Amino acid sequence: MPGSERRPPRWDLSPIYPGFDSDSWQNDKARMAVLASELLGHLEGIPDRKPGPEGDSAFEFWLVRAVALLGDLEALDENLSSYAYSTYSTDTRNERALKELNACEELGLPARRASVAFRNAIASRADEVVRLASTSSKLVGFGFFLTEELFWQSKQMGPELEDLAADLGRSGGDAWMRLQEAVSSTTSAVWDAATGERRTVIQLRNLAYDPDRSVRRKAFDLELEAWKSVEVPLAAALNGVKGFMITLNKRRGWETALDKSLAQSRITRKTLDALIGAMTESLPVFRSYLNAKAKLLGIPKCAFYDLFAPVGEKGPAFSFEEASRIVVENYAGFSPDMGAFAKKAIAASWVDAEPREGKVGGAYCIDFPLAGESRVLLNYEGSFASIKTLAHELGHAWHHEAVKDLPKLLTNYPMTLAETASIFGETIVFEGLLPGLPESARLGALESHLKDPTQVIVDILSRFIFEREVCERRERGELSPAELCELMVKAQRETYGDGLDENCPHPYMWAVKSHYYSPDLAYYNFPYAFGQLFALGLYARWKDEGPRFAETYRTILRETGRKSAVDVTKSAGFDIETKVFWKSGLDVIAGQIGDFKRLAETSPSRR
Q: How many domains does the chain have?
């Protein structure tokens, strides 16, 4: 399967809005203000409490209208913000995109105000809201949403303070987040002194997949030098984001940032403890994989720049067209509808895959609720891992497709369940592709696959430990770049153990990962582990039940916006508050590691 020279595609956003100067963009921006004003006015007109059917009817009518307006406002707000961010993230030097992103944030302030007012209004009549949520035919399906809104009302400040916090956020937490994106997407180093060729840190990180260790080492050293050159502004950004978050959390009554993250993820502390406990107990298995990989590479221990190194027979460089075909075919093997959707998304230019200067690193999927469409960003470099990334992000897009016809307020699912959908998508592709590979290529493919669960379990655990320590220390004061590097190395050594060369960790992983810089979403790490292991459970169900599970899976996705994660997983037959459940998923990975080690022992490529 030789790769072609054709560049990976860029996406087309014109079906969403033709541009920032288009009538549709300007009209929707104007409509934001109108909708927010209408909702705020409606909330001020809450009917007086009156006994009897007449009073019940008046309040029910008011609540139904409030819910409808809030949903319309959220959909419009997300549509505008997603377009501005999508434009900005593919060219962080685009000044107009940055201005429009700022304008969207300002336009969203009345929406934030309306959300606060909505929660306060329903809290003043909480008993009636709870009763109507279970008895009103006009509010069918909104019971979970309304109950959750009552909970979040207990964790918000007064209207004036929430309004101020939202306004200050644009030049506070959000601004620090944009600084990290702008710096990380444009930071580069000289790759070839003779020609003056420079490579961005994103391009340097992609060289971690190069088969030549000297190339990987050179790229890694240059990457660390590049991060070192911008460590001061990035440390300021991380301190700014975490300080902003901690201050607001205290004002809103949260004991820790982790407590808020659990609520956002719709899981219990018992669930997280079971997950983290099972992950910690599994670390020796992953370390044995890394040590087996080191032997294949002919080195004593894996340095950080060896974690993504290919082993076994060199695999082909897949063109983006080949990757697309692989994803579509394997999606279709699970569900014809899912395969047709992926084919449509790629053909309609929903994917931006070309790496380039000014484009943010990593990958994401973003939704446009008014258009009923998604867009996928990745930095495609032709590897087996890139195919899985495409499958991962299109898994997110399929999730959006499954819920797009529901009221907007019933489509807001937590990170834990969002990551389940994406990892299930990539699991389908990997498991479908592996059996068709020749024996000589299976070692390399299996190892390429194992890189991901190793990152999701071992590296994610190090990121969780690091963030927990940073949040605790940030309450006492700002952390220097040296302190952040020290904490990062300590966390990596705790999880990688003897599987990683202790002299070659990655001290600047705190600068690399943009998830640390969200002022609203702390601990954006353990949801990946949740998704990885829950997806493996769902995959096992599919293998047992066959084709009929595709519809069950789509039903599960549709429930993710209107149930807690505990209840959604219960509907699939799992108890996520026990380590037994998480160990079942880890056992699947342990079996794959066992297969890899057996293949490694007999591999002619072993050095």
A: 1
